[in-house]
Amino acid sequence: MKDTHSTQKLESIITQISSGLYEKDNSIRLVLLSFLSGESAFMLGEPGTAKSLIARRVSDAFVEPTDEEKNQGVIKFFDYLMSRFSQPDEVFGPISINKLKSDLYERKTDFYLPKAKFAFLDEIWKANPSIQNALLTILNEHLFRNGKELIKVPLVGFVSASNELPEPGQGLEAIFDRFLIRILERPIKEEDNFFNMISSQSDMTVYVKDRFTMQELDIIRTKSQGVQISKECLSVISTIRKLLTIKNQEPTRSDNDKYIISDRRWKKIANLMKVSAYCNGRLETDTLDTMLIANCIWSTETQEKEALDIVSDAIVKDDAINTIIKNTQTFEDVINDLFYEEVPVKDGDGLYQCKAINNDEVVRFHSVPIDNLSPDNPVFHDRTGSYRLLYKMQERELSREKLDLYLKTQDNDYDSLNRDITEKIAFINKQLEYWRYAKNLFVSNHLRQIVVNELSHQLVVLEECSSRSLAASTKYHKIVLTQKISGFKAETDFVPLKLIDIMVAAITEMMNKFRMVPVEYNNTKYYAFKDLRNALILYIPTQDINQKESCCLSHVYKAYKNDDSLHRTYSYYDYYYYNSYNLTCSYDGNIYEPKCVEIDKLKLNGVLSNTKTALVNELRDRELQMNALEKSIRGDAFIKYDQKEDLLQQTHSIYNAFVSSAQEEFINKLEMIGTDIESKKAPYKKLCSIRKELERLEAKKSSINNK
């Protein structure tokens, strides 16, 4: 059952005995805990840092001896300043002369340390060995050998102090180990506290109301044994032991500076944590209680500085955070490797660049085969020295299929990583709330703040991991969308113009199939050969063509291939059109009137209709593709609003330019063909319907722009 009364009483007592003492809160709480748990404390500090005052103040938390105890020579508080000349009589009492006459070597212990409830020995390490040896049994078993008898001492709390630590190799390790709690007492640091101290009254006496009785103390010590050590505390203790082992294995650490924590000491530490938990109204220890370990494991001043860090690290240590950090780096590396590759740097002359090792001068080289070097093995050697090949990051080219495949994989990786980060942030925030507001009478706010700072740092690390993973995924999504937009542009630049070219070629072939036009140049009659697009390509003198038979272009080329004036035209024509179409030209007997081929109106209408349908469908497909791309951009959770607007603007610009270009090209070709067809009195209605369809598309483009 929880003892809330003791908790409230302790809180009140700590407030009262701390009155008028500045920056001594932690020391008062630890000394009080040592008294409640039956352990001894050691205070290390310069003279004049209130060590003896703290011990006396804390003893005031307990009632005075009873009248019966006083009649038996029991005193409440015994203190003594040790020196190398101090004798056991000054601490344990003088030899009884009457007993000595009876051949009994006994001391008169009344009003000395063996009859004291609380004791404070200053400069403990200056005491002679006989005093120190007698203290061993008093501190450990609460027994004092007085002659032939072992006397049970009423000692409740014992505090020793010194301005130095025991010298190694002097046989003081045993008695030093008896002091479970060790406190480094420093002078007042904050200037305001210092001024308050020197301005306060000299009388430092305080009267504590509602002190603890010995019966209440026995209840605390007895019931605290039923407190359970939590799994979290056992985990922290295990981590502390591992960290201490690592510290002891440091090459620079001397044997005198190694941590030596005996099993007996760990047992006493566990008991100390139980008393702390019980006095705070708990039946199970928690991680706040483990902060007390920092004052139980150090033996040197170097260790005192490390101990608090070791314990706080053990409390906040979380391997999952290291895993998250590693996974974040891996996530970034995978994305960078996917989109970028390292390539050797070339200079303006096309030579690879390298840098002399241990020299900032950049030089060029080409004597080393590039195949022998790589980012993993970038160093080469020659007679002039050692050089490192310079690399730069270059974006890779990926297909749309790979981009879509990787996008799904990377989104899954990001979701998993982000879920781990979110869960860990929630857990640490819960821990922070606990460490900020949970109460522990024996852990000062200063110690609590150390753990709070460590947890806050972990939050910063996790938030940085979250930002890095988000930035990497955002970069990935932006590259994917950018490449999709580039693919969209490439398709819009190619397909419509190809459709128009096919239509023009088909119509032109119907209009200009196999005909020759006689022309004159320099008073000489020529035949003009035309390609499918009705462009004048080649002139051949008419007298050199057999008017009775068909003339093959290859024969003409052979006859005039040595003509310098027409050589370029012949070569171009033969290279491109002869190899492509192998045109033949016929003559009907009259060189001044060309042979006209009647246009197949039904076929012409079919070409126009099919072209119109194909082009309109293509325009609609591009519109659907643009809408799908726009939907992808707007629905992308990784791209910021301003970046989305930029990508959408690019997409709309590409589509609008595509529509305008297609319409302009189509209309220009139709007007040219239409004029030619009209001159042949061919039907023109189809051209009008196509023009109306283009006007509809133009109106739709304006609507998109307004949107």
Average pLDDT score: 77
Percent of residues in beta strands? 5-15%
Low-confidence stretches: 513-518, 528-539, 545-597, 680-688
**Structural class determined from secondary elements:** alpha/beta
Fraction of residues in H or I helices? 40-55%
SSE blueprint and pairings:
Blueprint: H1 4-17, H2 25-37, E1 40-45, H3 51-59, H4 67-71, E2 75-81, H5 88-92, H6 97-101, E3 116-122, H7 129-141, E4 143-146, E5 149-152, E6 157-162, H8 173-177, E7 179-185, H9 191-199, H10 214-223, H11 231-248, H12 263-279, H13 287-290, H14 301-316, H15 319-339, E8 340-344, E9 352-356, E10 362-365, E11 379-382, E12 385-389, E13 391-395, H16 400-437, H17 445-511, E14 517-521, E15 524-530, E16 536-541, E17 551-552, H18 553-560, H19 567-581, E18 584-585, H20 601-635, H21 641-679, H22 685-706
Parallel strand pairs: 1-6, 1-7, 2-3, 3-6
Antiparallel strand pairs: 4-5, 8-13, 9-10, 9-12, 11-12, 14-15, 15-16, 17-18
